[in-house]
Amino acid sequence: MNNLELINQLVEWRHYLHQNPESAFQEENTAKFVAEKLIVMGYEVETGIGKTGVVASLKVGDGTGVIGLRADMDAINMTEKGEIPYASKNCGKMHACGHDGHTATLLGAAKLLSERKNFNGTVRLIFQPAEEPGKGAQAMIDDGFFEKFTVDEIYGLHNMPFLPEGTIHTRPLGILASEDNFVIKIKGKGSHASSPHVGIDPLVTAAQIIVSLQTIVSRNVNPLNQAVISCTELHTDGVHNAIPSNVEISGDTRSFSTEVQELIETRMRSISEGICQMNGAECEFEYTHEFAPTINWEKCVDVVVKVAKNVVGEDKVNTNCEPWMASEDFGNFLKYVPGCFLFLGSGKSTEVSKNIPLHNSQYDYNDDVLLTGAEFFAELIKVRLP
């Protein structure tokens, strides 16, 4: 298959996936579509890993090395508003993060590897469910992924519309942040708005907590470390003329290390409980770890840089890009084996503001970078399994 034929095939696959999005752990049709294509290519395929995950393996020669390549398959529960001929047919679901492109890209790499067979060892293609809620990678791991499928190293990518088209960006160590969620429930004593002195105002208490939480990043976290604390929701049971009895604050935090995560959780709890006690209110503090940080292994970053330069040229490779405070559950795989995550630039316009961002109801993957991603993955296997 020549490049033009492969590009047309990738676009056809991508548009089909875009038209038929499935959200977390519901990717049954997507998994079936992927598995059918891989079987035709000659891969050994196992389905149902982590509920709807697919793992495909191809061994060439007598090499003992095993390299994993991962793509995520799930869509977002969002209504598509873009006007494209292959818009989502599933109401309230769309590929607003480009996982349709990631899946098509890895299928393209699978096609190149099965035709060229220019490596010596085993490639494992990992089509993961449920990345959006941060549960899919761990679900595959809990289902015995690493026991069933040996992997020496693992690699993954994400498209980035705010980076120039066809560029590749990575960095050593932290590239994507953790995500922790919190809920702070404050119980006061409701009263008439005209008589605050007979109640315990949980809304004023909440306001004090929200402002005080901002001091954690500015005064407790080392300025050389990145961290974000965002209060994103505030709910009360009050009305315009009644001071509420209950207030609930929720939000999330981002960081790149377990030490900072622990510091944030400890300080948030102390501040919330302390201010509530000071005001005579009761406090219930909940804190959950949703996404692990994605921490690249330095030796694998070197591999990605070498391969990227082979594919797109040295001038299109950023070897020490800025970390992104968003989260990706690929970090769970990196707790077990060495690996590296990278960004594939997909911005059509040189003016960043003109590129539709991820998680936007009009977002659409840039088909022009499908072959670039596929060639990158294929070249990586050639380099790592000589």
TrEMBL record:
Positions annotated to bind Mn(2+): C97, H99, E132, H158, H359
NCBIfam families linked: amidohydrolases
CDD domains from the UniProt entry: M20_Acy1-like
Co-factor note (free text): The Mn(2+) ion enhances activity.
Keyword annotations: Hydrolase, Manganese, Metal-binding
This protein's record includes keyword Hydrolase: yes
Name of the molecule in the record: Hippurate hydrolase
SUPFAM superfamilies: Bacterial exopeptidase dimerisation domain (SSF55031), Zn-dependent exopeptidases (SSF53187)
Cofactor(s) it depends on: Mn(2+)
Keyword tRNA-binding applies: no
Family matches, as Pfam families: M20_dimer, Peptidase_M20
One GO-annotated biological process of the protein: diaminopimelate biosynthetic process
Chain ranges of the Peptidase M20 dimerisation domain: 182-268
Molecular-function annotations in GO: metal ion binding; N-acetyldiaminopimelate deacetylase activity
